[in-house]
Amino acid sequence: MVREQFTRVFALFALLALLAFTGGSASALPGGTALSPQAALGDDDTGEGDDDDKGDDKEKKNEEDDKRDRGNEKADKVAATRVITVAPACTFDAVADQTTCTLTADLGASGAAARRIIVPEEVLCADQRTTSPALLIGSPGTITGDDDSSGDDGNSRDDDDSGSGNSDENTGAPPGAATLTLAGNVSPGGLATTYYVETDSGLFPARGLGLVCAPADAAAPLPTATLESDINDSTGAIMVLAFDCGQVADTTNFDWFGGCAPAPAPGQLELSQWDGATFVAVGAAKTGTTGELSFPQLAPGLYELHEPATTWCHAESDSVNAQGEVMVAAGQRSTVWVFHCAPPATLTSLTPTPAK
Predict the structure, then answer these.
(1) Domain count, the chain
(2) Do 188 and 257 reside in the same domain of the chain?
(3) CATH number assigned to the domain comprising residue 303
(4) Which of 74, 160, 190, 191 is the most buried (most CB within 10 A)?
(5) pLDDT of 113-136, one tens digit each?
(6) Measured between alpha carbons, how far is 161 from 164 in angstroms, rounded to an integer?
(7) Domain range for residue 175?
(8) At 299, which helix (H) or strand (E)?
(9) Per-residue pLDDT reduced to its tens digit, 162-179
(10) Under a CB-based contact definition with an 8 Å cutoff, are residues 116 and 197 in contact?
(11) Helix or strand or coil: residue 109?
(12) Quick count: other Cβ atoms within 10 Å of Cβ 223?
């Protein structure tokens, strides 16, 4: 041990003497090789190797990102939708045999107030009895209402809410909430549902639990949430909703969900999955007359969508990464909203008819 320490100290002094003799230039060593004091002491862990490893890791990551970009160059990227949630809370009135549910929207740190909450028809597991003015039934572009402020298309158009968040004075619902009364015993549950929340800046999708109805037999237990046919414990699904928006002059501030309607014409979308090296095609499907299509029973992973016949002007998803790739998880449904814009109008050149 003493001899080894002496040898290392001697090597260090020898190196210092050599550097002093050569004017301090490490490159003057035989063969032009630079030798550090740590190396002279037999310590190879100079930290330079760690930096090289970090550089290699970064280079590998960049190569993988480039490979993913090249893997499916025709794919259209999808943006992340705004994070909004809707939380239903229900109270059952056994005497009247009906349930009043209060749906409260949480817009996060934006400070915005929810003016209306739109509930999709498939959430209504029982007959609808009443709704507050702040609640509408339907989906973007097909909303129906039954209050006195309905427009020609049946949609509520009462815009004079004075920034109150459209609270319902009759039911005592707080600002940002809406009430819905359904027949029978109803409680929050089931799979996550897509609601829509209207704010002063536009209409946005929101996620929240659906509603579950108790069976008519009071002795029977409440039904438990079951996975639907397009997903299971080991697979997920992608639901695509396509919209037509007409001509859009400013795509930066446009109200996509409020200013567009479900696309009636069928449109084809192609789906590909990242296999670790490239994106591989897994299938294609066409939207129906309401602009919907589903890619069911997908393995968890990253996916990209592409429209072969056209290109959307905007797309959002509630499950997407920074690269615009849709993320699929087991037992969950990822929703993608695709918006199409009409090309800008052009003036037709008219050739004057020569006078006869």
Answers:
(1) 2
(2) no
(3) 2.60.40.10
(4) 190
(5) 888 999 988 888 889 888 888 888
(6) 6
(7) 85-213
(8) none
(9) 333 344 444 455 666 899
(10) yes
(11) helix
(12) 14
